[in-house]
Amino acid sequence: MSLSTSANLVKYLLFLFNFLFVITGISIMAVGLTVQGAYHNFSDILDPQFFSVPTFLVVIGCFIFIIAFFGCCGAYKENYCMTLTFSILLVLIFILELAAGISGYVLRNDTYNMVSKTLRNSMTQYGGNSSHEITILWDEIQVDFDCCGVDSSDDWIKSNDKLFNATTLPMTCCRTAVGTIGYIKCPDSEFPDRMRKDGCVKSFGNYIRSHAVSLGSAGIAIAVIQFFGIFFACYLSKQIKMQHGHSGF
Residue 171 has what DSSP assignment? Predict the structure, then answer.
């Protein structure tokens, strides 16, 4: 016995949604990998929580390919078991994506506090022989984000008053000529605009926060799309069961 007209329509729509699932799977993996790449350069000073969500999205993207297989086969063969499996897997992925999206927004709200904490903890390692990576990271952050310290340059003095003072700071706290090395006098009365006066927690935090927002948006947006896929899959499996009984197993 063939499916009803409405069930046939849902069947073809399910094929279309499976194609969209493949695209969303690629998209969600792309977002996760992009954010991972953006965070990777700062892995030594960022909290591990910032890496868990993008990794989670990459794994979900891989599962979507497997789920799309069950959906296509179940719809094509009008197989109740495979269509039901597809529905259950979609529900699971829906929950995971929603959780990833919410986690992304939670990270967004906690970004400034977490970034401030990790930056402060790493300041004490600046300039040490065993923490060369931290020194390079701090120099890159202060140059790339045009900032100095966490909230201000005073943070360097508080972190190590034997190494830093009001006129001796990491050279990247100042806009200097190419080729300048070591520690310099800054601010200099002769060049008052050299000093980077803004703290890094705001500019660097905005950069990290924007990627957390991307994770949250991707997770929730794709979860909404898949909600309709769940509806179609459940409706189709119900129609198959009603018209074919258990012969689809």
Answer: G
